[in-house]
Amino acid sequence: MNINRKLGVFGGGQLGRMLIQSAINFNWEVRTLDPDAQAPCRNISHFTQGALKDYQTVYEFGKSCDVLTIEIEAVNVEALKQLEKEGVKVFPQPHIIELIQDKRLQKQFYRQEQIPTADFVLTENREELMRYQDWLPAVHKLGKDGYDGRGVQILRSVEDLSKGFDAPGVLERMIPFEKELAVIVARNESGEVKAFPAVEMAFHPEHNLVEYLFAPAEISQATEVKAQEIAQTIISKLGMVGLLAVEMFLTKEGEILVNEIAPRPHNSGHHTIEANQVSQYEQHLRAIMNLPLGDTEALSPAAMVNVLGEAGFSGEARYEGLEEILQLKGVHLHLYGKTLTKPFRKMGHITITDQSVESLKEKAQFVKKHFKVKA
Amino acid sequence: MNINRKLGVFGGGQLGRMLIQSAINFNWEVRTLDPDAQAPCRNISHFTQGALKDYQTVYEFGKSCDVLTIEIEAVNVEALKQLEKEGVKVFPQPHIIELIQDKRLQKQFYRQEQIPTADFVLTENREELMRYQDWLPAVHKLGKDGYDGRGVQILRSVEDLSKGFDAPGVLERMIPFEKELAVIVARNESGEVKAFPAVEMAFHPEHNLVEYLFAPAEISQATEVKAQEIAQTIISKLGMVGLLAVEMFLTKEGEILVNEIAPRPHNSGHHTIEANQVSQYEQHLRAIMNLPLGDTEALSPAAMVNVLGEAGFSGEARYEGLEEILQLKGVHLHLYGKTLTKPFRKMGHITITDQSVESLKEKAQFVKKHFKVKA
């Protein structure tokens, strides 16, 4: 077995940080590239400051590594394609990153492969968007460069149409869903595929970020199987190597519709670090290094609470309530090494494990109430 | 809560490496000092190459940090005492490191505090040692600078006495023990004390290193309680802040005798990363940062297998059998980032978790048989 390999990661954020924590166990030397000199990976990897969208920067960084992966999709795909041509392993493969960078291509892929998803039309500009009054209520998504709640508009009324994007986008029917689910699935180079159990997400009503997550999702066995199958189908049809997070709506009628996919470790899989046999990070590493995938079994019910910068505070982060929450059994802190806080910035997450779902939910509320990031 | 602190670690080996994996979650910037330019912590911390026994090196490194700890005992204590005087937090405290650096002082401490331990005499040189023929069979230990099986001689016959150390040492009665146990206990600055459940160790007959470890130890509830109490008593009597590993003999008569102590994360606690609510590494960090200690409850039975360099191989390490062992559920790999292997060098460890003790033992045997470090 060839280990001691150099793993290059595009992006030096929290996902890279947790990937490094896992890569250490495999003797892989991690190199990270990020435009921010204060990126969370700066002190725990061979860190290069540079632009992820710049061809030459991406190419040169990539040439110094044996295997390349991403922790953010917004990377120069042309450079990745060239690196792939020159024999560097790039997982997920560049053409898949390209597909996922564009929500319009993503939606067309679902349609073509008969993967259930909300009905949609492509829109080129705001003027064209105005024609779709009969699609309301709807969601307008920017084709490219949306991230973490940015690049998405909810359009309820005719007046709202003017808030839509004046750039190529996709207009989707609004789904009156019962729950939002996510399944993380992995596929290695040999074609082995394994899905994690579905999780249930609760979004913050205002800023459209995951606020809580519960695992396992409270759904029927049939829905669980269906959700995992859909995720497995997508990664297999893509022929993708790596980790794919599939966010889905469960409708009131019990239908599952795919909402978004991300070809990398994902916010909806953080709890796997403590709550599953294998974590999403180790699974991603196993997939891209073509090692056998780990067993995804859940060891315990878990809740994940995002630690977001408190509204009204910007500046050097101060954490309140650490002592209080660390007194609780099964509370696992993960801070992301960010010096500065601002409203709703993701500063960390906390996973809570507890065999009792009731006690789990109480602890999640306690953590949410007592742990604050201020400045 | 004051986080974002600079934690200085003396020693940049595998214990430091796993401590860093945990410190990342708390936003602590870790700085390590080690004489070896290829030390396991070199790429994942702010690394300084330098001698741990040199006053000036230790002092200057220490001045750049807010809190100092060790992952090896062999550090210049005078420099640590000076740093402590100047207000740097040093945990474990320098006078405790000094005590533990000297096995003679350790044994006298047990006697003075009525902590059960094998009967002993102090010896100044080999000539004096020769007088103790009536103590055989016995164990002769070098007072200072022993480490990982070095500095210990088993003396069975009168001829063996000449193998004893010609330097200040301690001669202990050989204990015909039933089992070797270890309890890891932590104490924070506020005086809170928590012990992990006892584990059972199996040593390799030749090279005196832990070969396997099983948790929980197969002992009576009464012995479990007694073992934990002894560990708690020692750390409390020492008034020590940090993590203390207490290795003990369980005699055929059910008596517990303290063998050795180590004031830091320890080989006998690696399994806590996956098998307990809190890991020994996080517990150590909580203790030295004066945070509430974590719950030590075991989540699963576990086995820990040390990954040692195969006899007969020296040079750049190659790992055999990785694919085979990673196919097993509950097998957790931890490699230590060492480039070169040599016979019996600790290259990593593997923790196996399984709710069935029988299956756990089978997997431990499988791992031991299939995973090899060669060159």
TrEMBL record, chains A, B:
Statement: the UniProt record of this protein carries the keyword Ligase: yes
Catalytic activity: 5-amino-1-(5-phospho-beta-D-ribosyl)imidazole + hydrogencarbonate + ATP = 5-carboxyamino-1-(5-phospho-D-ribosyl)imidazole + ADP + phosphate + 2 H(+)
UniProt domain ATP-grasp: residue ranges: 107-289
Enzyme class: ligase
Name of a matching Pfam family: ATP-grasp
Superkingdom per UniProt: Bacteria
Binding site for ATP: K103, K141, E172, R173, M174, I175, E180, N259, E260
Keywords assigned: ATP-binding, Ligase, Nucleotide-binding, Purine biosynthesis
Subunit structure comment from the entry: Homodimer.
Protein name according to UniProt: N5-carboxyaminoimidazole ribonucleotide synthase
Protein source organism: Shiella aurantiaca
